[in-house]
Each structure stands twice: as C-alpha cells, then as structure tokens.
C-alpha cells in the first residue's frame, strides 16, 4: 500500500521535529552542566583569592606591629639620649652662655 505524498511530508516533519527537540534538549543540558561547572570553578577561584588576600593582610598587619614596636623602642632610645644630653648640657661649663661650647655640639651630633 502506497502512502499519499502529504503523509511522507508529515512523517518527515515529525522526524525533523523529534530530532530538533532531542538536539535542543541535549544542548540545554550541556549548557546547564557547563554553567554549573564554570560557576563552581569561579567560586573556588574566588575563595582562593579571598584566602590569599586575608593571608596578605595578616602578614602586613604583623609586619606593621613589628615596625611599630621597633619605632617605639627607637623613640624611647631617642628620649633617653635627649634626657642625657640635657643633663650633660646643664652640667657643662658655660651652660648659661648664649653660645654652644664644642662639647655641647659634639653631644648634639651624637643624637643624629
């Protein structure tokens, strides 16, 4: 039995529609899976960058505290030098004079 021509056209259209539906479904699934993988990779990279940033900030803060302690020690040392210089200047002969004697100049130069 021979089918009419329109039946072959209908059959061809149905096959094409089924093929297109399968292609669209597979493509959509691939897109969703690919998007999920890319999103997971992006999140992992973001977490890694956040950890690296946090570690860098912690290291910088530690270095800052060490430098602040160093600076505090130098400031105390400078204060000690200034106090010692003031005592020596007060005891030096000619401390009441308007000019600095050579000993005072040498003491001032040691502070530099």
Question: What features would you describe in this structure?
Answer:
The chain is mainly alpha-helical and about 110 residues long. The chain has one domain. Helix content is about 85%, strand content about 0%. The chain contains 2 helices and no strands. It has helices spanning about 5-90, 100-110. Helix 1 (about 5-90) runs antiparallel to helix 2. The chain is rod-shaped, with a radius of gyration of 43 Å. About 0% of the residues are buried. The mean pLDDT is about 85.
Compressed to H and E, one letter per element, the order equals HH
Indicate the overall shape. Answer: rod-shaped
Bin the strand percentage: under 5%
Q: Considering DSSP H and I runs of 4 or more, what fraction of the residues is helical?
A: over 70%
Count of DSSP helices?
2
* Whole-number total of structural domains: 1
Average pLDDT level: 86
Radius of gyration: 43 Å
The strand count comes to 0
Question: How would you characterize the largest beta sheet?
Answer: none
Instruction: Give the N-terminus to C-terminus distance in angstroms.
Output: 115 Å
Low-confidence stretches are: none
User: How does the helix and strand content classify structurally?
Assistant: mainly alpha
């Amino acid at each position: 039995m021979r089918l009419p021509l329109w039946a072959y056209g209908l059959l061809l259209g149905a096959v094409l529609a089924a093929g297109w539906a399968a292609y669209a479904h597979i493509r959509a699934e691939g897109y969703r899976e690919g998007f999920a993988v890319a999103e997971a990779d992006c999140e992992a990279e973001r977490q890694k960058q956040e950890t690296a940033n946090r570690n860098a900030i912690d290291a910088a803060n530690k270095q800052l505290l060490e430098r602040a302690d160093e600076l505090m020690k130098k400031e105390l040392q400078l204060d000690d030098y200034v106090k010692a210089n003031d005592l020596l200047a007060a005891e030096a002969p000619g401390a009441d004079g308007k000019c600095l004697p050579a000993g005072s100049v040498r003491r001032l130069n040691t502070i530099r």
